[in-house]
Design brief:
The protein is α+β, with helices and mostly antiparallel strands. It has helices at 16-48, 54-61, 72-94, 221-235, 243-273, 287-290, 294-303, 306-318, 364-375, 390-393, 410-415, and strands at 2-13, 117-119, 124-127, 132-136, 148-154, 164-171, 176-187, 195-201, 205-210, 215-219, 276-283, 323-328, 352-354, 361-363, 396-401, 406-409. A seven-stranded antiparallel beta sheet has the order 2-6-7-1-5-4-3. A seven-stranded mixed beta sheet has the order 12-11-8-9-10-15-16, sandwiched between helices. The chain has a two-stranded antiparallel ribbon with strand order 13-14.
Length: 417
Amino acid sequence: MANQGTRTYVASIRNHQQVRDDLDSLGFAASKLWNIARWTCDRIWAETGTIPDHGVLKAYLKNHERYADLNAQSSQAILEELAEAFDSWYALRENGDENVNPPGYRKHGDDHPRSTVTFKEDGFKHDPDHDRIRLSKGRNLKDGRRDFILCEYAVDPDVTVQNVQQVRAVWTGTEWELHIVCNVEIDDSDAPGDRVAGIDLGICNFAAVAVGDDALLYPGGALKEDDYYFQKERAKCNDNSSRKAQRLDRKRETRRTHFFHAVSKDIVVECAARNVGTIAVGDLNGIREDTDWGDHGNLDLHGWAFDRFTKMLAYKAAEHGISVERVDERGTSKSCGSCGTTDGSQRVERGLYVCEECGLVANADVNGAENIRQKVLPNLACDGGDRDNGWMAQPAVRLFDKSTGRVRPQEQVACEP
């Protein structure tokens, strides 16, 4: 039996250079409208003592000049987002959180940043035969009735974009990408199992996955090689805003995105085959600021978009009915995944964990992944090393194959000329 649901696919824009200026204009316009609406909220609040909902904001601003910079539904989406942000803030204040701040203005100094622009039914047209989406401009930004933004997109090779319900243009900090929301059928016959997998994200090994009696390791060598190459080529550019520099940045981001897609897809497929229903991922929020990895380590850590990868993993897992939970990973690298003993000195080398209490010898990243897994299983009793933990020392290694753009077992990649 199939049920209806939605899936959001992240797509890169192949003709980014041609459409960037137009998308920048919409992103800046979205920030301006947000700020005008934010000021309007202050004024209404001062006069009435109430926070306006999105209906009131729309009534106040529908004739404002900036409202027509965007498609009407896109402008409405911004006002709905602001009203929802105020509702969330007010609810937290009602629950006693006096430190929470109300939604602020969107500005970087005197400049407006690029805000996400949402396109609903009337704001886009999808051409699935040519992998293109036409995005509408607002009346003020149009140069004639036929002026629109035609984005050529690329998604994960195994994704079929159809029944599009909504499109969001999102600025990543370096380029625009499209988040495409599709209506899909979910087959109940593919319901997940009840097992839990833990994932430890890192630098040398991009991801280590522990399932309780099995482990998978995804080295990040291909990603680091790309980063090193593009950093070296980027350093040769005299002007950071030159076409060559921008082309290198886009190519680097495209290859990184493909790596994320390939690894997240493989993890989900492997977890589904092992009857996993829940994936626990180490949450790195705060780790970047609180941990000193050395100059080179910090550069790598800050350069990798762990949060973006986790979002990809989550929507791919949802297609299999698998839930993804973020788990605080503080202390998981110091504790023994077998007996629970905590000792910072037991990680004797970067890739090796040895527990002096129970004698466990494990891959350090797999041990961390197992501890993350156990945080979702609070009743899981440590057995003092009585069970077979050999899988923690010898995980199956899966490599990103640059020749095919897919992840495969190490022996298959290594054996090919």
